[in-house]
Amino acid sequence: MPISTLVISHNPVLLHQLERFLAQEESVEIMAATQELMWPSLQMLAQADNPVVVWAMRWPLCEDIKLLQTVHHRYPDLKFIVVSPLEADDYETAVLEAGGTAYLTERNLINALIPAICGVAQVQGGYVSL
After folding, report:
1. Longest dimension (CA), the chain
2. pTM for the structure as a whole
3. Measuring CA to CA, which residue among 100, 95, 16 is closest to residue 52?
């Protein structure tokens, strides 16, 4: 059964590239792709089995990390893969503490995204180390 996935990126080029890349993967079903976090999309995804959100956060990450914390509190069963242009351990720690399940940098995105989606879909709480 494919993994239900929501893709979020404020960058329309990255959003389109993520959509095209994930559409080729049989183990992933894109439920929605959007430039902004939308509560109805999250609510729909939360009803799926093993839902995963791929969220390319914008710089600076602080506001999106606060929003992640709010979303995770409201939808604790959603799994969040955060994509960031930054490789700083401080941001990774902040994302995981806010409810993120995995943290990827744009540099390793293509090689790590599918394994991350498959890995977080199976995890029960905690986070995935990649």
Report:
1. 36
2. 0.90
3. 100
